[in-house]
Amino acid sequence: MASPTVTTLGLQTVFYLVFAVIAYFVESGQEFKWHTASELRWVILDTFVLIFIYGLFRFREGMTKDVYDLESKKDTPEEPLVPENVPAIIRNAERSAGNTAEQLPLFVLSMWLYGCVRPVTAGVMGGIELILIAVYPILYGFGKKHGKFLPASTIPRYIMNEYMAVASIMTIFGLTRTAAAASSP
110-132 burial by CB neighbour count: b if 16+ within 10 A, else e? Predict the structure, then answer.
């Protein structure tokens, strides 16, 4: 059995090669250039909403720990008013914030780079990404294990982020078909 490192490296390489082939055709004739704020408005809005969601997840993580730790440590003869699944609630809050923090740099960088190639498409992909980030806590679930539909939030995000990054790099280095080659029969 191959080591996880070798398997990950192999999968990552295959994904990048597939994205490169797709970008070669899809991004033909595109230029990498800085666009106006008006053209980048959806990318700018996505960035603002991402910061807002990330802030919510981080505050939720801290408040969840504070509330349940205080409730469980009350010095009373009565049972603390803590739901039975507190560890799962805390784990959900931690993983929601943690997953967002893990993917945030790749998302922001790839979306802004791709915004220099196709600003509207980058903004739309960013909006889809934000929806998938927002549903992560729901899909993660509150059980002992994460929910079985969690990959429906994470896998499309990795695919979009990595495609935007590869397509941007290929456009920067002129590795896509030229406009003349793309339009000739």
Answer: bbbbbbbbbbebbbebbeebbeb
pLDDT at 73: 54
Q: Which pTM value belongs to this model?
A: 0.83
Cα end-to-end span (Å), the chain: 47
- The C-alpha angle 87, 4, 126, rounded to 5 degrees, equals 65
Alpha carbon distance 21, 134 (integer Å): 31
Using a 10 angstrom Cβ sphere, with 0-12 exposed, 13-18 middle and 19 or more buried, the burial of residue 70 is exposed
Give the tens place of pLDDT for each residue, 47-93: 999 999 999 999 999 898 777 765 555 555 565 555 677 888 888 99
Find all residues with CB under 8 Å of 133, minimum gap 6, and list them.
Answer: 50, 53, 100, 103, 153, 157
Q: Which helix (H) or strand (E) holds 124?
A: helix 119-134
Contact call for residues 85 and 142 (beta carbons, < 8 A): yes
Per-residue model confidence (pLDDT) at position 6: 84
Nearest by Cα to 91 from 133, 154, 146: 146
Query: What span, in angstroms and rounded, lies between the C-alpha atoms of 89 and 141?
Result: 9
Which position has the token pair 């004739």?
Answer: 29
Q: Taking the CB of residue 71, how many other CB atoms lie within 10 A of it?
A: 13
